[in-house]
Amino acid sequence: MLNSRAGKSALIAFLLAVMASGCSSMGVEPWERDVLAKEEMQLTTDPVEAGIDDHIYFSKEASSGGRGFGGGGCGCN
Amino acid sequence: MSKQNSRSIAASLATAACSLLGTSTISPVQAQEEPDWDFNTALLYYGESDNRVQDFSLNVLARRIYVDDRILSLGLTVDALTGATPSGALPFDGPQTFTRPSGKATYTTAPNEIPLDDSFLDTRVALTAGWQQPLARLYSINAGVSASKEYDYVHLGANAGLARDFNKRNTTLSLGVAYSQDSLNPEGGAPVPLSAMLDVGDLSNRMGDQDKDVVDLVLGLTQVVSRDLLFQFNYSLSQSSGYLTDPFKFLSLVDPVTGDPVSHTPAPGERGPSHENRFESRPDERTKHSVYGQAKYYMSGKVLDLSYRYMTDDWEIDSHTLEARYRWPFGDRSYLEPHVRWYTQTAADFYRISLVDGAPPLEFASADYRLGEFDAITLGMKYGWTTRSDNEMSVRLEYYMQDGSAPSDQIIGNQVGRELYPDLDAIIAQFSYRF
Amino acid sequence: MTRAGESRNPQLRRAAGYYQGLFRAMGSPCELLVDTKNEKLAQKLLRLVAAEAWRVEDKFSRYLPGNIIAKINESDGQAVTVDDETANLLDFSATLYELSERRFDITSGVLRKVWIFDGSDRVPTAESIRQIMDSIGWHRVSWQRPRIRLQPGMQIDLGGIGKEYAVDRAAARISPVTSCPCLINFGGDLVASGDVRQPDGWQVGIESPDSEGSAKKLIALRTGALATSGDARRFLLKDGIRYGHILNPQTGWPIEHAPDSVTVAADTCTQAGMLTTLAMLNGANAEAFLEQQNVQFWCLRQKSESSRSRL
């Protein structure tokens, strides 16, 4: 129910599909996902930037991946 | 409800709602669906100091969202690369001449400077396409393909994934696999590993096109902890096989006493290298394991994003990566996001700053600084704002520096005191626009 | 409609070009967006909207002692005389009961005693449902404005109307005060009021958790209301109790093949909300029902389920 990326005059109304509830004490009820639904709370807020960073570090370091696939597809390393 | 009746329900409901609410000044609803293409674009400048690599890059990611959460995404990246990159050869107090990778010409580097191969000029075009959709109630699947083309390199890849939600969708388990097949066809052919750098025009140590395959597997767990905290944990396995050597990197062959490069005399009437160099050689298999953890924490409008990665592989490289971002909204419609990244790695077991003349032959050796031991720090700041027309823009500026050192037990004679490890300083400047 | 410990302290903050007020009522996060630079005005509107939400909650929540609903439910067969507002709501409920061919029934709340959707597989026995069905049915209620008489053991519950009604009432409270564009959103049921300044009005995202937030359907709302009914919403509509399904008050059993969620656009939030509820009560025919009503709607159904319901 909170503001989304759409800025001025923007809002996220939040809608959830059905699910039988589990028994874990961790987690939230479906109607408590207002904060988690925000753009800035996504695991990858900017997929393009994440891709750029993965590419840079893939070509300059010996490690890659972790967050997702190993990157690559580049003659740079 | 029978069909005859149901036609009038909305009208009867309107009348009933009107008398319930007692208002006569209700404005009629005006709602429409927004176009559901979403474009993420970014222009990037990546520039290393000392005239090393410069990259101008254009990135576009377009996403179309259909009903039922089916998502099509299409990506395009164009990179224009120029500049020089460390060849692996050691500096010494005289000029050095090298044969270009093409085998068609030579270039000379100044005394006491880390030899850079300045023939680095390329354009890379990469395309991706992906599809994601729910499958049954708690599952979702995704699949994608990727392709990229450089002057001497072609990549083709495919990936697929499956995710399942548990515990009121507070827990998600995911599994992804990716396969890529890359082929290298450097001009003149890829050099035979550990063969000597030859005179101009002599391609007798060159092989034909080379291939490498990479299989990636990622197991993921996402856990919502509370209204403002969530975690992600991944385990990844990456298996590469084939030609994993860099065809442009080589090592200096040095004198066992002085540590200076052994000189080479080109054949009469030919141009060629002034010193002995050997093309590098890497194992044709590599298995990497990594674990990754990320936390996102919302603190009354501010968001902290922390992540850590540990990677280990059978080349004896271990690395740790720690990253933090802090998104700090201010003013009407903007935010600042400082970013810190710290990285450290150990050297590959076959990393050598040079090959020693007369020493027993090695099976694998590479002086590629990226396989050495180093630390790296990235410091960055991003400023993002929302335009009047509700589009998002951001600029970010980052500074990346690598600080490594040559293994002390490999430093011989005159090498002491020379700059043997090419440190790196780079600027990342990016402008993003989302609409 | 309330939960213990819910703080009644609205928070106002400046967001991207507008003011955003936040508070909780009726077991839901509630929000007011005001397109203004005037902080005092935004404060005033937020106070009005929150006060109206809490007034409706206090007056009609079946969980609060001493209000009119408690009085009716504890009347033990005696007639109760109600005020005009309650009477209007009872008239409206009676109309809905007719329009829905007895599927929308404010006396069906007692089914909660046997249906507890807590994620376990404890489905009530047919016998226990049969027993409780004896105390369900609006037709057993004597309603002659302003007097209502329930049979002993019966209860009414306005939770199925309350939140949408509160949204419309809140809009009516602020419209004499300002013509500034405002958006009132009580747990996903919302109304846009005031002038339209932005060409696209308010952008409302409908989002499903499957996609980790990347999949959004954006609806531009210039004027009027949007309401959403899904099982998640149903929890809210039915007083925060853990309902996972829509129950058919005529049988005591869940409606089969209801969509996962339904969003409807209408002039008022009450209309929109009732249309979503009626659509849900139509189960597999929800989309067909909404088509006939000639309203704008967005139904969310997992693919495998819709195909199963067509068999």
- Overall radius of gyration of chain B: 28 Å
Tally of discrete structural domains of chain A: 2
Low-pLDDT runs of 5+ residues of chain B are none
Mean pLDDT of chain A: 67
Oligomeric state: heterotrimer
SS strand fraction of chain A: under 5%
Helix content class of chain B: under 10%
**How far apart are the first and last residues' alpha carbons of chain A, in Å?**
45 Å
Structural class of chain A: mainly alpha
> Which structural class fits the helix and strand makeup of chain B?
mainly beta
Beta-strand percentage range of chain B: over 45%
Record field, number of beta strands of chain B: 24
Order of helices and strands of chain B: HHEEEEEEEEEEEEEEEEEEEEEEEE
Our count of helices of chain A gives: 1
From the spread of the alpha carbons, the general shape of chain B counts as elongated
What's the overall geometry of chain A? elongated
Description:
The complex is a heterotrimer of chains A (77), B (435) and C (311). Chain A is mainly α and 77 residues long. Chain A has 1 helix and 1 strand; from the N terminus they run E-H. The N terminus of chain A is likely disordered. Chain B has one domain: Porin (Beta Barrel), CATH 2.40.160. Chain B is 4% helix and 57% strand. Chain B has a 16-stranded antiparallel β-barrel. In chain B, a hairpin with a 5-residue loop joins strand 22 and strand 23. With 435 residues, chain B is mainly β. Chain B is built from 2 helices and 24 strands. Chain C has a domain of 91 residues: ApbE-like superfamily (T-fold, Orthogonal Bundle). Chain C has 9 helices and 14 strands. In chain C, strand 7 and strand 8 form a beta hairpin. In chain C, helix 1 runs antiparallel to helix 5, helix 5 runs antiparallel to helix 7 and helix 7 runs antiparallel to helix 8. The longest helix of chain C is centred in the first third of the chain and has 22 residues.
